[in-house]
Specification:
With 165 residues, the chain is mostly beta strands. The protein has one domain: Porin, CATH 2.40.160.20. Helix content is 0%, strand content 74%. The protein has an eight-stranded antiparallel barrel with strand order 1-2-3-4-5-6-7-9. It is elongated.
Length: 165
């Protein structure tokens, strides 16, 4: 079985992702989710601000340990690891002028999630989950790179809607 889902709350948080999940067996599935992120922050007093555009992908495996009998992946309780990579670039805006800021952000993270996926009428997908991760982020500006390691918030919550076929 296959499923395609989107996170309907993502655009409110400045990102959009489409996930493709394929059952490899009755109790294991693989997924990949390309994403695009976009944010824009401006100050009303000066009219200047910064905009960020990025892209990335997440891939992972879900194990359905409580699948009854022959199993029903991708339906039911699941847990599994995932890896994520992303790249973003920033633009500065000032009084109508726009130009690159020279700042880029690259990141990789690894995490684990657990959750539950509902299949309604064997076609419509509702999936909830959450987890934790750790990531490495590199911020490059004017030829200098700052690297940071820490907990990743990208793995904390999951809410997706979609279609299974």
């Amino acid at each position: 079985m296959n499923a395609i889902t989107i996170g309907p709350l993502g655009p409110l948080l400045g990102s959009f992702s489409v996930e493709y999940e394929r059952a490899l067996s009755s109790s294991v599935s693989f997924f990949i989710a390309p994403s695009v992120s976009f944010t824009s922050l401006a100050t009303a007093a000066t009219g200047s601000g910064v905009s960020t555009f990025g892209f990335g992908a997440t891939a992972g495996v879900r194990v359905f340990p409580l699948s009854p009998g022959a199993g029903r992946a991708p339906e039911g309780f699941w847990l599994g690891p995932e890896l994520q990579g992303e790249y973003a670039s920033q633009w500065l805006t000032s009084l109508g002028a726009t130009g690159p800021s020279g700042q880029t952000l690259t990141g990789v993270s690894a995490g684990a999630q657990l959750g539950y996926t509902f299949l309604i009428s064997k076609a419509f997908v509702i999936s909830f989950g959450g987890g934790i991760g750790v990531g490495l982020v590199n911020l490059t500006s004017s030829g200098m790179t700052l690297s940071m390691v820490g907990f990743s918030t990208r793995h904390l919550l999951r809410f997706s809607l979609g279609y299974a076929f």
